[in-house]
């Protein structure tokens, strides 16, 4: 199938969620995001002696950092959610999935510090991400961006807010002259985007990369490798802001695995051509 033959992507109508549950979940997620923003802002790039944050080690490789802040924030998130939403299991980067999370109708997904390498280095492009996810994808999402003093929040059918202020619908985008966010982009993709007179930006945080599309700062975000907790919160923001989410084949998917494109529908086909080459 060619890009030109694809219809404009439209996700199926998501399952409705109890309005009271949405309100409670959004309020709790916002509180946790504020807590996380305060901790990250107070500790980024330093420990009590003025050096790096207290680091407990690395995981898959020497660049795969994990700090006390990652673990402290995830434990705090789990305690609060277990008390307020005992029926909804939690999936997190540092402590894995609660029992029955795979088959639960709704689950929380948290990344306590998305962009930990930036956090360790003192580079203010890191985020806290939390989402409530059901079979239709993220129903509630928050992303805390301490470096810019912003808490972004969205709930299904309720729009997208930045620090409590509704974000206006974006003007019709064009690719030429715009920015595209990517994480670990392939060299061929970067070259094609440049030839289309656009620029690629690698922020070191998947959550913030997708959030830039929701805000209208970037025309698209292309992610080759990521985990559910990296993107769930931001995908809720993007969908409520009018962006579409498609998988590597160009088909709509509320939370793809194995590669995703977040983009405004008007330029989806053009971005798919640049991605596919």
From TrEMBL:
Residues spanning the membrane = none
Query: Per the record's keyword annotation, is Magnesium included, yes or no?
Result: yes
Coiled-coil annotation reads none
> What keywords are assigned to this protein?
Magnesium, Metal-binding
Q: Which InterPro entries match?
A: Inositol_monophosphatase-like, Inositol_monophosphatase_CS
Q: What is its EC number?
A: 3.1.3.25
Q: Which reaction(s) are listed as its catalytic activity?
A: a myo-inositol phosphate + H2O = myo-inositol + phosphate
Q: Which parts of the sequence bind Mg(2+) 2?
A: 93
GO molecular function per UniProt: inositol monophosphate 1-phosphatase activity; metal ion binding
- Name the record gives this protein: inositol-phosphate phosphatase
Instruction: State the organism named in the record.
Output: Pseudonocardia sediminis
